[in-house]
Write a structure and sequence with these properties.
By secondary structure, the protein is of the alpha/beta class. It has helices at about 15-20, 40-50, 70-75, 95-100, 105-120, 130-135, 145-160, 180-185, 255-260, 280-295, 315-320, 335-350, 360-365, 370-375, 375-390, 470-475, and strands spanning about 10, 25, 30-35, 60-65, 90-95, 125, 165-170, 185-195, 200-210, 220-225, 225-230, 250, 265, 270-275, 300-305, 325-330, 355-360, 395-400, 420-430, 430-440, 450-455, 460-465.
Amino acid sequence: MKNTVKINRLVTGIAGLDDLLGGGIPEFSFNLLAGTPGSGKTTLAHQIMFSLASRQRRSLFFTVLGEPPLKILRYQQQFTFFDAQQVNQSIKFVNLAADIAAGDLDRVLARITEEVRLFSPGLVFIDSFRSMVQAAQDPHASGVDLQYFVQQLGVQMTSWLATTFLIGEYQNPETESGAVFTVADGIIWMSQLIHRDALVRKIQVIKMRGQAQSLGAHTFRITEDGITIFPRAMSSSIQPALPVSGGQRLSMGVAELDTMLGGGVPVGYSVLLVGPSGSGKSVLANQFLAEGVRMGEKGVLAAFEKSPNQLLNKQLNAMIEQGQVGVINTRTLDLSIDEILHDLVSMIQRMQAKRVVIDSLSGFELALASSFREDFRESLYRMVSVLTGLGLTVLMTAELEDRYETLRFSAYGNAFLADAIVMQRYIELSGELQRVISVIKVRASAHSKAIHFYEIHDEQLVIGKTLSAYTGILTGQPASSVLPR
């Protein structure tokens, strides 16, 4: 029989962090919060501290630089997680500036050990650990003292049953090494990347002993609530919101189009609706959502080209007001795909939605931070995979320049991502521009290959006869018998 020791995990409750760590912070672990200056290390440390500190698990926060704790608290208390009642009760701040000035690491270790003995904390933070080492260590020393200091600090904290965090400024995880990286049980790396006119913050768990962490770099934002992390959403990590019925099809809200599609859109398919400006893509997308509401299916709209107050469709606005359709606020630019997916999935799961509209892919690309636009195809692939993996039927609109001499199905070369493609076009007949619609593709399903005329009346797309019927006009039939007027 195999006996195992279960390590308790401290659940921080910080959005996204516990998922990243594999369930929380291992209790009594020795951790390093590292990264570039200004990347949010101190803010994350304070957020963890205020989240976990209590009368039963007190916290000791050592500051190293000459700045008094009062100055640090002045800025940290701007965050909503800050609780003034915990300061000097369950949380104590200690300044080590005078001990560091002596340049003796043994003295620093003795002071830390004494404070820990007197306060008996369950959490210990040292900010900034690297600044302390640089200030205290003799530049001509061999480095043995530092290694001994780190090892002894780790042993002391573990013997006192304290979960420890060293905060330090480091430039690159691939180029850094040393005693602290070896001794640390966990290493969390934070960085901020400036790409053209956009700033994107990333967090990565480099190391976390004894548990499976989420790999890769993940986006995070700093707001008045502190740090919010958006783990990379993958279809394999998300459970379907609703069961998917095999062979079931959904109506697009236009009976003639359902017939053209072979009986509607199969549940869980991604549909790409392409066409030039003014062809009625958003009108058809609204009908798709309205049909869902009529059938008792809630929907979600991510309107990347319009803010919520610019949605002029009366029927759509009514569905939004009644809570039948949710709208994702996409007015903030420089988003990451992880942020967008986080908001989408959260609303979908909250509403138990079955239909999603992305209007449009051009706006979606612009909403991404410039550093993410270079990977737009990958971002789009991940978004479609996650949403369809949830069992949702997704309708995406894409503006396509209408060129008479060429026929294209996607401006991005991403037509392969769609399970079905519906194309809207203009053609010139008898000196007038007429709208036509056709089904290009429905994966694993028979569909009509005919091209139909259509018009837009009262915010509704109305499909008429086929283009081939236009030959009847040449034999004397009135145009009204062919065109949907």
